[in-house]
Amino acid sequence: MTISWTMVMDFTPAFAIVTGEWNHSFAALRKNRECVIAIPTVDMLDKVVGIGTCSGADTDKFARFGLTPLRGRVVEPPLIKECLANIECKVTDIVRKHNIVVLEAVAACIDAARKEKRTLHAVGDGTFIVDGRRIDRRKMMASKLPWGV
Amino acid sequence: MTISWTMVMDFTPAFAIVTGEWNHSFAALRKNRECVIAIPTVDMLDKVVGIGTCSGADTDKFARFGLTPLRGRVVEPPLIKECLANIECKVTDIVRKHNIVVLEAVAACIDAARKEKRTLHAVGDGTFIVDGRRIDRRKMMASKLPWGV
């Protein structure tokens, strides 16, 4: 599934996503307690939107969108070869009241050879912002980063 | 406070943020059950980082960073005049197990006359990505947007 309702929760590899009964993948998450967060880039936008607007209940999304599943190191669900990065996750909690799924990363890899590295930010209205330039404030933030500068 | 651990939770104006006991503002959130999400732009980056690396316990952040408080329409905490947008929020729940604060927006305003509209995305390592170009996929996403295209 495509998901944009996500956040980092800590300097440990903890994440939260929001999904629920309306989503075919929610049942799989509850049952398998595992998933892979695959990070796409701007050149994949039409696949991202396509994946988000059909359902795994009646569609083989890997086949339809020309994606290649790769075996993970720890979890059962596949990585997506075409993505910039893949984060293997365990479901550590589900806050049913808010449909929040709490994840802990157990492995991660990045395709360092990939040329296109710009990711997407869903605005929420059907538009997407592409990564622009990067600004470095590591020195200013050193006191807040557990690993320092 | 500066916060980057945030997410949208629904097509209703619901948000989640993660903060906790380590943060001076957490006690205020718990007590007052209100806050304002003020959205800064790239030209405010050094203020954003500065605000995130000092504490309201011993600093008047509005004075130190040259910010102007404005009265909100619904909530007690002030808006920040210099920001691109301000979202007045009520705290609807606190999930103590995960330090997740659930917010509901009750009013919002945007400074439409502001020239600089590019926002920032905290990478988490002390670097920040600036908004690049915007891509429109509203037609493709119409089936997923409650208000249509």
How would you describe what is shown here?
By secondary structure, the first copy, chain A, is of the alpha+beta class. Helix content of chain A is about 15%, strand content about 35%. Chain A has a five-stranded antiparallel beta sheet with strand order 1-2-7-6-3, covered by helices on one side. In chain A, strand 1 (about 5-10) and strand 2 form a beta hairpin. At the A-B interface, strand 1, helix 2, strand 9 and helix 4 of A face strand 1, helix 2, strand 9 and helix 4 of B. Strand 9 (about 125-135) of chain A pairs antiparallel with strand 9 of chain B, so a sheet runs across the interface.
Would you spell out the secondary-structure blueprint of this structure?
The structure is a homodimer of 149-residue chains.
Chain A: E1 6-8, E2 14-18, H1 24-32, E3 34-39, H2 45-52, H3 61-64, E4 69-70, E5 79-80, E6 85-95, E7 100-110, E8 120-122, E9 127-136, H4 138-141
Antiparallel strand pairs in A: 1-2, 2-7, 3-6, 4-5, 6-7, 8-9
Overall residue-averaged pLDDT value of chain A = 95
Largest interface, and how many residues on either side?
A: A-B, 51 and 51 residues
Strand tally of chain A is 9
Protein structure class of chain A: alpha+beta
Largest sheet of chain A: 5 strands, antiparallel
The oligomeric state of the chains shown is homodimer
* Alpha-carbon distance between the two ends of chain A: 35 Å
Runs of chain A in which pLDDT lies below 50 for 5 or more consecutive residues are none
Provide the helix percentage of chain A. Answer: 10-25%
Q: How are the strands of the biggest sheet of chain A laid out side by side?
A: 1-2-7-6-3
Total helix count of chain A? 4
Note the overall shape of chain A.
globular
Proportion of residues in β-strands of chain A:
35-45%
* Alpha carbon gyration radius of chain A: 16 Å
Q: What is the succession of H and E elements of chain A?
A: EEHEHHEEEEEEH
